[in-house]
Amino acid sequence: MNPSTSTNEHARSPRRASLPEPIEAGAFWSAVLLPFCSLALFLGGLGTTSEYLLFGSLVSANVAALIVGHGYGR
What we know:
By secondary structure, this protein is mostly helical. It has helices at about 5-10, 20-45, 50-70. The chain has one domain (about 20-70). About 5% of the residues are buried.
């Protein structure tokens, strides 16, 4: 560490490559809205295999949207 470098620069993690802002924004808002779709399907009842697959797909899409949209607004 040379004297001109502050210690805070070494404490930060390296910055990850960010996605374009419209993609992060879309993922963020998808992560906000997808639970309502999942909840509606869940409250309506899961009776068939296709409903279980749809519910699992919605949960998976929500997790992916959370990961992609996590950095939006920073």
